[in-house]
Specification:
CATH superfamily of chain C: Ferritin, core subunit, four-helix bundle
Largest interface: B-C, 46 and 49 residues
Number of strands of chain B: 2
Chains: A alpha+beta (96), B mainly alpha (334), C mainly alpha (251)
Oligomer: heterotrimer
Helix content of chain C: 55-70%
Radius of gyration of chain C: 18 Å
Strand content of chain C: under 5%
Number of helices of chain C: 10
Largest sheet of chain C: none
Order of helices and strands of chain C: HHHHHHHHHH
């Protein structure tokens, strides 16, 4: 519109209860970090969804390249020895 | 639905030959019910269709604040006033989530506003009808939100991740809207004869426009094929409309109201409610901009945008001043 | 004491309802979608507080009057809100300055009321004080940005301060009935709140690079005794129109 600079976009992360990690829940436009936290509070916690908020400038997020999905994530699929079910333990031993 | 005007436009997937391999990967991801995420390759047509659909949906939510907003100040009890204000606030929130989803496709909210204000982008025809009585608030919750929910639940499984996630949040919040509306209708229908008449009058005015919300009949719908293949759309307009009618008619009967359709009857064989012919000329007229309230809705939105410009500019100017002061302080400290 | 207590609870409710109503009129008019939602949150907090204070007033009075009887079936002359809250909306600077002026008072006031010897009032205040704390914060952040933003936002914020300043003193007024409640340890002393209000306002204004209005206009009061601006009557005519057209029905 008539605005010279668009308001930056912020990614919003909320912690639903203490003890849980912050989880991405959406984004807001805000002029600065303080207002971004307030906007996140007003927009994303209207139903008691949160006890803590993080906001991060969207532009600051560095993402992995989807085209490199194969080299980044594929190799782990063949390394079953990292999982407990890979190992045989007799039932008599009980839960381990 | 909120994106009904889409059906009148083209959306061919203009892909280059070198994209064939990537297209295959894309389609197999979609076929496997996996999600497409913002950074993934996607056909241009998919991106365009999504931007158009999501933004029309967002515009509909934001414009949709107005017809109900008409009654915030006059809500007849404080309980109703709080519920209505919270509901309209949710609609602003839904618009916001959806704009954010659209932004992941590389278009800014400001650009989307521009498209709305210039008339390039459409919003749902339903919000171009007036709300002269309090019963309209009941009807909007019961029928308009009811119709929206029919459409939105399948969208929670849409192939585009950010859209699907936004819709999950929207659906979760929306669940109180329809109940709020039906409760208003129920109270009116159990009230005085004047209240009941108010409810019947509202149903008479809204029933047909609500059926039009689902968009043109399947035989006239232009490009459902792409949207279906891309798993953006899972049910046809007519299927959703039928589902809505089947769910709604018994609810209306419970209220003791009469639907303004002499052809409405239960088809014993199929178990579906048969409804009369929809006046599509009215639909086309309203979508094209000639509904009872199109001009007021756009003027209101334009005014809001213009009145807020100085606030947004001030906030940005202040942020810039702070940055400069912080930079100056840093230099002074060095 | 019960008549004074009823009147007092009604006046607290009236302040909250009328300001909540003014804020609710911002719906779909906010400068950003985010702020539209924020303004409705402020409105909902205040409308919620009003409902609690009305209901309490009805209980104390013992005549079966409900929250809606108080809100919808009294005329402007029966309302006991301060004039500050009934002034019609103008621009966003006006809305934020008014919110700051009100909340900077209401926050310490409700905090004190939460320690009232009257448990009903204390309970409502304890809930409301948390809501109002955010109102202070939100409006303060905006006043700072608008005061120290662009020339236009600064001009508008100064205009809002000038327009609203004459209505400040009324926040601290007490009539004989309320004084008796103060003496009984039920109501906080409004005069004791003034230094806290001064500090909050001066801190915000300093950060906003603004000053208190230099032209001291004559204080405008009368709301507590039912002498209102015509804007309140207009607001109520709209607010009450449907409820009064069908008295006695359920909605």
């Amino acid at each position: 519109m008539t605005d010279k600079t668009p308001m930056p976009l912020w990614e919003v992360f909320i912690r639903a209860r203490s003890g849980l990690p912050h989880k991405h829940c959406g984004s807001v436009h805000a002029p600065d970090a303080t207002m971004a936290v307030q906007a996140a509070r007003d927009v994303y916690t209207r139903r008691g969804e949160s006890v803590s908020i993080w906001v991060v400038p969207s532009a600051a997020i560095i993402a992995s390249d989807p085209n490199e999905k194969d080299q980044l994530f594929e190799p782990t699929s063949t390394k079953a020895y990292r999982h407990p079910t890979f190992y045989d333990i007799p039932d008599e031993v009980g839960h381990m | 639905m909120y994106t009904q005007a889409l059906n009148a436009k083209d959306a061919s997937a203009g892909t280059r030959p070198e994209d064939t391999a990537r297209l295959a990967v894309f389609q197999s991801t979609v076929d496997a019910e996996d999600k497409i995420e913002p950074n993934d390759w996607m056909p241009d047509g998919y991106r365009k269709t999504l931007i158009r659909q999501i933004s029309q949906h967002a515009h509909s939510e934001v414009i949709g604040m107005q017809p109900e907003g008409n009654w915030i100040t006059r809500a007849p009890s404080l309980r109703r006033k709080a519920a209505l204000l919270a509901k309209i606030q949710d609609e602003a929130g839904h618009g916001l989530y959806l704009y954010a989803a659209a932004e992941t496709l590389g278009v800014s909210r400001d650009e989307l506003y521009e498209q709305l204000l210039s008339g390039k982008a459409k919003y749902s025809s339903i919000f171009n009808y007036p709300t002269p009585t309090w019963a309209d608030i009941g009807i909007i919750g019961w029928l308009v939100d009811g119709a929206a929910i029919m459409n939105q639940i399948p969208l929670c499984r849409c192939s585009y991740g950010p859209y699907a996630r936004a819709m999950i949040r929207v659906c979760k919040e929306e669940s109180f809207h329809q109940r709020q509306g039906y409760e208003i209708m129920l109270t009116l229908c159990r009230g005085t004869p004047e209240q009941k008449a108010m409810a019947q009058d509202a149903l008479n005015r809204w029933w047909w426009p609500v059926l039009m919300m689902f968009g043109p009949s399947d035989k006239d719908s232009m490009h459902s094929a792409d949207s279906t293949r891309w798993k953006i759309k899972r049910f046809s307009n007519d299927d959703l409309r039928q589902k809505f009618v089947d769910a709604t008619v018994p609810q209306g009967q419970f209220l003791g109201l009469t639907f303004p359709d002499p052809d409405l009857r239960l088809d014993e064989e199929s178990g579906h409610w048969h409804y009369g012919e929809i006046d599509w000329s009215e639909f086309k007229r309203v979508v094209a901009g000639d509904g009872p309230m199109n001009k007021q809705r756009m003027a209101h939105r334009r005014q809001t945008e213009a009145d807020g410009a100085w606030v947004r500019e001030a906030a940005m100017a202040h942020a810039e001043k702070r940055r400069q002061r912080a930079a100056a302080a840093r230099i002074a400290a060095e | 004491m019960s008549a004074e207590l009823t009147a007092y609870s009604i006046s607290l409710a009236d302040d909250a309802l009328v300001l909540g109503h003014r804020l609710s009129q911002w719906s779909s008019l906010g400068p950003t979608l985010e702020e539209d939602i924020a303004l409705s949150n402020l409105a909902l907090d205040l409308i919620g507080q009003a409902r609690l204070f009305y209901t309490l007033a009805g209980q104390i009075e013992g005549k079966d009057r409900t929250e809606d009887d108080f809100a919808y079936f009294r005329d402007a002359g029966d309302f006991r809100n301060v004039l500050l809250v009934e002034l019609p909306n103008s621009d966003f600077a006006h809305a934020m300055v008014r919110q700051l002026v009100y909340a900077a008072f209401a926050h310490p006031y409700l905090d004190a009321l939460s320690r009232s010897s009257h448990s009903g009032l204390a309970e409502i205040a304890a809930k409301a004080v948390k809501e109002i704390a955010y109102h202070v914060r939100h409006s303060a952040e905006w006043v700072i940005r608008l005061g120290d933003g662009t020339d236009e936002s600064r001009r508008r914020t100064i205009a809002a301060l000038d327009a609203l300043w004459p209505y400040v003193d009324e926040l601290f007024e007490m009539d004989a009935g309320e004084r008796s409640l103060v003496a009984a340890g039920i109501a906080p002393d409004r005069a004791a709140i003034r230094p806290v209000w001064d500090r909050t306002i001066d801190n915000v204004l300093r950060e906003a690079t603004l000053e208190r209005p230099s032209q001291v206009a004559v204080a405008r009061t009368g709301g507590r005794s039912g002498r209102h601006t015509s804007d309140l009557a207009a607001m109520l005519a709209d607010m009450q129109v449907l409820a009064r057209a069908h008295p006695g029905v359920t909605w």
